[in-house]
Write a structure and sequence with these properties.
The complex is a heterodimer of chains A (about 300) and B (about 180). Chain A has five helices and twelve strands. By secondary structure, chain A is of the alpha+beta class. Chain A has one domain. In chain A, the strands form two sheets. In chain A, strands 1-2-5-4-3-12 form a six-stranded antiparallel β-barrel. In chain A, a hairpin with a 4-residue loop joins β4 and β5. Chain A is elongated, with a radius of gyration of 24 Å. By secondary structure, chain B is mainly α. Chain B has one domain. In chain B, about 60% of the residues lie in helices and about 5% in strands. Chain B has six helices and four strands. Chain B has a two-stranded antiparallel sheet. A two-stranded antiparallel ribbon of chain B has the order 3-4. Classes of the chains: A alpha+beta (about 300), B mainly alpha (about 180). Chains A and B meet through α1, α2, β1 and β2 of A and α3, α4 and α5 of B.
Chain lengths: ~300, ~180
């Protein structure tokens, strides 16, 4: 059935004008959108304030959601209690997964310690986390991979700080509002993390591929020494990420490196830890390179 | 005096006596639902890849098709801006795409003024892929041709979800016209 033809103005002057004004307004809207898009692609940080203000305003919604995610999981766990074997199995599997990552991290730490002791006779102390918070949402319908964190400048979070979970690195803080922050997840195509193999010093870059996996590109090209199952940890190069945090496990070998599966799947993490920038004092002295690195994203 | 039959005092939108439609509800509900749809990124789903359909956009399409003229043509500007604030897209991408959608639907309606389930779905199935591809292009994420299959699950899911969204919108539309305002 055709709807009433209010669209046809006929000889009605007022209707003609209204129709024209409608097209004009929509056209102006589109033009404005194109302009803003050009600006935000050219200078991505221009509208950060606006965006973090908006996510601050809507954070309570996300908080409720995140709380209910934990709550509903408890509810389902109570039901799953009847199917004891299955849930216990899942629990043990989870434990083994954590243990495996821990083992790789421990090996990496051991090696790191050895190297440091050998070179400088220096020992890393335990890192005091800035804050613990929840991931309250992610850009699940966009091609970019951002997540929203339930802590902001009020909790001491600053741009560039690494975000980790017990299983490994999750991402880093991209912009900070008062009570929320936006996190660039490792799987975003703009995220590049310097990594090394946990067992030796094969250094590489881990780039996001936007589909939950990472592309590991070796810095020294030649014979590809990687094997499936190799674990990569942060190398600490660049000064942002603490060395020895687990990042990815190799699942597929390519010509110039490998495809790695993310170890700390952010979907499975409730609570994350925000750590201070590893060599913040050094980095703040070299403010310039950090600035350009941020703006390039 | 002529008396109305008792069943003439009520209709699907509630009692006709002493009640009237609320203009706030009647004109505000489409805006409210589309804005709520744009808040999907705050759902507690941490997706490793683009998965969820762009609910805000689907709701805009469904409202525009169900009630042409209810949303003014410039609605793409504020709704697109709101969508951009949360979707993770660079600001401007939603404004541009929402506005262009409004204009395109208007022109399409001049040519094909009819309505049917299949036609609406077909139109949505044309608009959604264009929206998703353009969004991916504008997002600034460096996705090569090799990674284009990444978008396919989301695309299919969105196209399949459209009839459900349209059905939801028709429920909202009944709610929109409920007589809640007390007169006299």
């Amino acid at each position: 059935m055709a709807p009433p033809s209010a669209k046809r103005s006929g000889s009605n002057k007022k209707a003609q004008l209204g129709l024209f004004a409608g097209y004009l307004a929509a056209g102006l809207g589109a033009t404005l959108g194109a302009l803003l898009l050009a600006i935000s692609l050219w200078r991505p940080e221009t509208f950060n304030g606006l965006r973090s203000m908006a996510s601050d305003a809507a954070a309570p919604v996300g908080e409720v959601g995140a709380a209910s995610r934990v709550g509903s999981r408890n509810f389902f766990e109570a039901i799953a209690g009847y199917y004891d074997a299955g849930s216990k199995n899942a629990e043990l599997e989870e434990e083994i997964r954590i243990a495996r990552v821990r083992l790789a991290e421990a090996r990496a730490l051991e090696q790191e310690n050895e190297r440091l002791r050998a070179v400088l006779e220096l020992a890393e102390g335990d890192i005091e986390p800035v804050t613990t918070a929840r991931l309250i949402g992610s850009t699940s319908s966009s091609a970019r991979r951002f997540a929203y964190l339930s802590a902001g400048s009020r909790d001491g979070v600053e741009t560039g700080m690494p975000v980790t979970s017990p299983l490994g690195l999750v991402g880093r803080v991209l912009e900070v509002g008062r009570s929320t922050a936006r996190v660039l997840l490792l799987t975003d195509t703009d995220s590049v993390v310097p990594v090394r193999r946990a067992t030796d010093n094969t250094v590489a870059f881990a780039e996001g591929r936007a589909d939950g996996s990472l592309r590991i590109r070796l810095i020294n090209l030649g014979v590809n020494p990687l094997k499936e199952g190799d674990i990569f940890v942060t190398s600490g190069a660049g000064g942002l990420f603490h060395p020895g945090t687990a990042v990815a496990m190799v699942t597929e070998i390519t010509d110039d490196g490998a495809i790695g599966q993310l170890l700390s799947n952010p979907a499975a993490t409730d609570v994350v830890i925000v750590k201070p920038i590893w060599q913040g004092d050094v980095l703040s002295e070299m403010e310039e390179p950090l600035e350009t690195e941020q703006t390039e994203e | 005096m002529e008396r109305l039959a008792t069943n003439a005092r009520r209709d699907a939108y509630g009692s006709k006596i002493n009640r009237d439609h609320s203009p706030v509800l009647a004109y505000g509900l489409p805006w409210l639902t589309i804005m709520l749809g744009s808040l999907t990124p705050l759902l507690p789903v941490i997706a490793p890849a683009p998965i969820l359909p762009p609910l805000g956009y689907l709701l805009l399409l469904a409202w525009r098709m169900l009630r042409p003229g209810l949303l003014p043509m410039w609605a793409g500007l504020p709704l697109g801006l709101f969508n951009d604030l949360y979707s993770g897209q660079p600001i401007g991408s939603g404004i541009l795409l929402f506005s262009v959608t409004m204009i395109a639907l208007e022109l399409l309606e001049l040519r094909f003024p009819w309505r049917s389930f299949w036609q609406d779905w077909l139109v949505a199935a044309l608009f959604i892929p264009v929206f998703l591809l353009a969004s991916a292009l504008f997002s600034g994420a460096s996705i090569g041709l090799g990674q284009a299959p990444l978008l396919i699950p989301q695309l299919l899911l969105s196209v399949i979800a459209f009839p459900i969204v349209a059905k939801m919108v028709s429920l909202f539309d009944r709610m929109r016209l409920t007589r809640v305002r007390r007169i006299g």
